[in-house]
Design goal:
heterodimer; A: 111 residues; alpha+beta; Alpha-Beta Plaits; four-stranded antiparallel beta sheet; 6 strands; 38% strand; B: 427 residues; mainly alpha; Methane Monooxygenase Hydroxylase, Chain G, domain 1; 19 helices; elongated
């Protein structure tokens, strides 16, 4: 079955408004999602801008990622299994992240 | 780090309770003037969990994880923060030591409970107003957010935030410490702690407006704080009396409101809905409050609540016992509200006419002028006397007073009852 990458973008400052109780409830919802049978993998990305590496005049050069350009950053990803995009979208519709940020789906080519 | 996805479920209120105890602990290490810093670092730890656990799963000991991350955040903050510069090395050393201490070791557990206790005692310092004390206790020891406190008090966020700012600046300006007072000062402080805890409890228990869930949380937080004091070395009998009182009352929480959110009077409550575990807890503390000679208001109220709790059903309540206890209560606290509550019991024991006579002196009491329960009780007594016309006048007067929606619905039902009784009487 095809695999899809579910990319989670959010604005980390948005979480600051939550109370401990609300944070716990949110965490529990996400964790429940990772346990769904179609979720194959999940990884968090470090909360920094990362590096962008480009060739400049034939020489590769690393710069800090485009952190300030956009408010929402990629916080992590899940790998899910679905028959096609329609099904993948349907599965993602009840993802708790939709209360906090944006989801992006990309099929892993060749799966 | 061992992260197991199966570890999954978190303990109920883990974040909230862990937040409270971490803030108390870090406030001791950072100094009371830096409560804000303690709160920020604890929030940072929770945020880190929120950003990590959804992907990596919950670590085996979630509480200890939060604890360690909060300590590390505090260490970073102290190193950055110039305000603490003269003491920062010592503070960092202490934080480092504490960060690595196993949180479930018995002595660490004792230390953490002691930190929470000191924090409550500081929040309830007489130099801090009672309103602010409640808000600050809920925020720091309770792990409630400003918005949650505002919802519980039906206040707006800004008002609560200002109350907290005021309380914290009072702590800073007056140099309040986490040191436990001694001797008579300790007794006085304990009394103010109990008042704050009971105030918190009543806010959750008596109002029928607002979000039920947060009010219920308020009751249980007050009970938890009471038990924390009761488990400490300063557990005077009064403390046990208050804990017993709260446990008995909270045991009936589920039975007080029906599925539609309407009030259910004691007589009509389904006893199967009473929480027997909490009643047991109540009696456990009630037994302990009997030590010593002191009879406080909490003692009498706990004894009244215990009498209700002992009854197998509404018909077997020992009303004359309750009346004797109310006489005692009135002697300690001759307030109009106690007089009114006592009158209800007089009605059960001696009949509605005597009860009406008992509340007659309250008629022109200014403190009760807009208290809906006074006319509501009179209306109830007139109904019992078979005087529905007089009763209707009282219920209409009650509806003029400020009261919550469920209370209003209750009064309207009573008014309809008067109408029916009037028609029957004319037949």
């Amino acid at each position: 079955m095809p695999l899809y990458m579910l990319l989670l973008y959010d604005d980390p400052t948005g979480w600051m408004k939550l109370s401990p109780e609300e944070m716990q409830r949110a965490t529990e919802k996400y964790m429940a999602w990772t346990k769904k049978p179609f979720t194959k993998d999940s990884k968090r990305l470090a909360p920094d801008a990362g590096r962008v590496i480009r060739s400049q005049g034939g020489k590769p050069k690393a710069t800090d990622g485009p952190y300030s350009e956009t408010k929402e950053i990629l916080g992590g990803y899940y790998t899910i299994e679905a028959a096609n995009y329609d099904e993948a979208v349907k599965l993602a519709l009840d993802h708790p992240h939709l209360d906090h940020g944006t989801l992006e789906l990309r099929q892993v080519y060749g799966t | 780090m061992t992260a197991t996805r199966e570890a999954g479920a978190l303990l109920e209120h883990l974040f909230r309770q862990q937040a409270g105890r971490m803030v108390a602990h870090l406030t001791r290490l950072l100094g009371p003037a830096n409560i804000d810093l303690a709160e920020e670092t604890v929030q940072e730890a929770m945020l880190r969990a929120l950003q990590t656990w959804p992907y990596e799963g919950v670590p085996e000991n979630a509480g200890a994880w939060l604890f360690r991350v909060a300590h590390n955040a505090a260490i970073d903050a102290v190193r950055r923060n110039k305000l603490l510069s003269d003491k920062s090395d010592a503070i960092v050393a202490e934080l480092t030591r504490s960060a690595t201490a196993p949180q479930d070791a018995p002595d660490v557990e004792v230390q953490l409970r002691d930190d929470e206790l000191r924090m409550i005692f500081m929040c309830c310092h007489p130099e801090v107003s009672q309103e602010s004390s409640v808000a600050l206790s809920l925020k720091t020891v309770g792990g409630f957010s400003v918005r949650e406190i505002a919802r519980a008090f039906l206040a707006d966020d800004t008002a609560i935030a200002q109350r907290l700012v005021r309380a914290k600046s009072q702590i800073r300006d007056r140099g309040l410490t986490l040191d436990m007072p001694r001797g008579d000062a300790l007794k006085r402080r304990l009394a103010s702690v109990l008042d704050v805890v009971y105030f918190m409890f009543n806010e959750g228990y008596t109002a029928h407006e607002g979000e039920d869930l947060i009010r219920r949380d308020l009751c249980f937080e007050a009970l938890r704080l009471g038990r924390l004091v009761a488990a400490s070395s300063i557990a005077l009998p009064t403390v046990h009396a208050l804990v017993a009182l709260m446990a008995f009352q909270v045991s009936r929480l589920a039975a007080r409101v029906d599925e539609l959110g309407d009030l259910v009077l004691f007589e009509d409550q389904d006893h199967a809905l009473w929480d027997q575990r909490l009643i047991g807890l109540g009696f456990h503390h009630f037994d302990q409050c009997m030590a010593g000679d002191e009879v406080s208001e909490y003692h009498v109220q706990a004894a009244i609540a215990a009498t209700y709790a002992r009854a197998a059903d509404a018909q077997s309540v020992d009303w004359s016992m309750i009346l004797r206890l109310y006489d005692q209560f009135l002697a300690i606290n001759p307030s109009p509200v106690v007089t009114l509550n006592r009158a209800v019991v007089v009605g059960k024991v001696e009949g509605p006419a005597q009860a009406l006579a008992a509340i007659a002196p309250l008629e022109n009491n200014t403190r009760l002028r807009s208290y809906y329960l006074l006319p509501a009780v009179r209306g109830h007594l007139f109904l019992e006397l078979g005087q529905p016309v007089e009763a209707a006048v009282c219920f209409r007067a009650a509806l003029e007073c400020p009261c919550s929606e469920p209370e209003r619905r209750f009064l309207r039902r009573k008014l309809e009852e008067c109408g029916r009784a009037t028609i029957l009487g004319q037949d």
